């Protein structure tokens, strides 16, 4: 296997791990109910972690934390037969991400830079702005999830969880392009 093939084989693991469990959740919900979908989400999340470990020889921290939250809140949902817990999961995950990003800034750390720095070379001021904006965005998304699951039907919440959160995250990311462009560091060309 060439290095190019090896990189291509590994490239599919992240989107598979990120989106595979949510696709399984949605399909199971459409076919059965929220409890079956929760069990399917838990199983798919565990499988995604195992595949990530087997292929990439590591499990990134955020999917591991998300899996822990899925395990705890999914387990409580199934054990107590109460869908409140799985509906709280996005709130907990979004709040954790927002708090970690903003907390890092309080200690002078731009925690997005180690994760995305190779894709977007920017100066430190740009990383501070981007980290702040995403931290606040995740906190707003946690509040949005709370409002949706507490005021809407389960069908609406599932649709929001699967499609709404993703669409809002994509739209918000697009609004950050001016920061990426204005703080971009031009990479020096070799040779």
Explain what you see:
This protein is mainly alpha-helical. The protein has 2 domains: 1-81, no CATH class; 83-185, no CATH class. The protein contains 9 helices and no strands. It has helices spanning 3-11, 13-31, 34-56, 61-80, 84-106, 112-116, 124-151, 154-175, 177-182.
Rg, rounded, reads 18 Å
Total beta strands: 0
Please work out how many helical segments DSSP would assign.
Answer: 9
Instruction: Give the number of domains.
Output: 2
What's the end-to-end separation, in Å? 29 Å
User: Strand portion, in percent?
Assistant: under 5%
Contiguous runs where pLDDT drops below 50 for at least 5 residues: 1-9
The main sheet comes to: none
What structural category do the secondary elements indicate? mainly alpha
Chain oligomer state: single chain
Mean of pLDDT: 88
- What percentage of residues falls in helices of 4 or more residues? over 70%
Identify the overall geometry: globular
Q: Note the run of SSEs as H and E.
A: HHHHHHHHH
Task: Quickly describe the structure.
With 191 residues, the protein is mostly helical. It has helices spanning 3-11, 13-31, 34-56, 61-80, 84-106, 112-116, 124-151, 154-175, 177-182. It has two domains: 1-81, no CATH class; 83-185, no CATH class.
């Amino acid at each position: 296997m060439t290095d190019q093939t090896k990189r291509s084989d590994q490239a599919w693991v992240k989107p598979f791990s990120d989106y595979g469990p949510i696709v399984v959740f949605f399909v199971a919900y459409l076919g059965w109910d929220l409890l079956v979908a929760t069990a399917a989400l838990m199983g798919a999340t565990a499988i995604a972690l195992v595949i990530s470990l087997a292929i990439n020889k590591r499990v990134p921290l955020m999917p591991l934390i998300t899996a822990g939250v899925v395990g705890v809140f999914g387990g409580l949902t199934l054990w107590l037969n109460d869908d409140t817990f799985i509906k709280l999961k996005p709130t907990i995950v979004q709040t954790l991400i927002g708090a970690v990003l903003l907390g890092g800034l309080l200690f002078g750390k731009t925690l997005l830079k180690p994760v995305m720095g190779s894709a977007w070379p920017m100066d430190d001021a740009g990383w501070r702005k981007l980290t702040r904006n995403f931290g606040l965005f995740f906190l707003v998304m946690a509040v949005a999830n709370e409002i949706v699951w507490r005021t809407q039907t389960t069908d609406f919440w599932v649709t929001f969880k699967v499609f709404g959160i993703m669409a809002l995250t994509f739209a918000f990311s697009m609004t950050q392009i001016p920061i990426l462009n204005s703080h971009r560091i031009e990479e020096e060309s070799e040779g």
